[in-house]
Recover the amino acids of this structure.
């Protein structure tokens, strides 16, 4: 009986992970579509960035496989790259990067010494440099 409970628990965990991976994939597809749209609509981008930040906070204790973690980072990188040329979305994107840095290691992001955190720290440094130039 104990084995059945354990297997059911693993199945439930796997189902949650698959839902998270699918959601991250959807965020990435939406990000590509929003960034590729001409003209770009900053309000829609800010709205999607805000939804992603909320999702990150809500699901911070879930685990993603490495492929999902890579998609999540790619999505945030895409928004960051766009924010460099669109001042209207910079604050929303920098808030998203800050949220990424606050996530527990090993769940939605790889370990601190990983590419994910190095990239996010680089984005934070970019933010500081941009703010100093504008001041």
């Amino acid at each position: 009986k104990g084995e059945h409970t354990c297997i059911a628990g693993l199945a439930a965990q796997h189902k949650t992970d698959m839902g998270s991976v699918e959601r991250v994939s959807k965020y990435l597809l939406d990000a590509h579509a929003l960034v590729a749209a001409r003209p770009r609509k900053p309000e829609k981008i800010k709205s999607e960035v805000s939804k992603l930040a909320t999702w990150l906070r809500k699901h911070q204790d879930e685990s993603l496989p490495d492929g999902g973690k890579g998609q999540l980072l790619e999505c945030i990188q895409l928004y960051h790259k766009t924010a460099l040329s669109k001042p209207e979305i910079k604050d929303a994107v920098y808030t998203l990067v800050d949220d990424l840095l606050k996530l527990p290691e090993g769940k939605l992001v790889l370990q601190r010494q990983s590419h994910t955190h190095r990239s996010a720290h680089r984005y934070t440094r970019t933010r500081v440099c941009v703010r100093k130039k504008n001041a």
DSSP finds five helices and no strands in the chain. The radius of gyration is 17 Å.
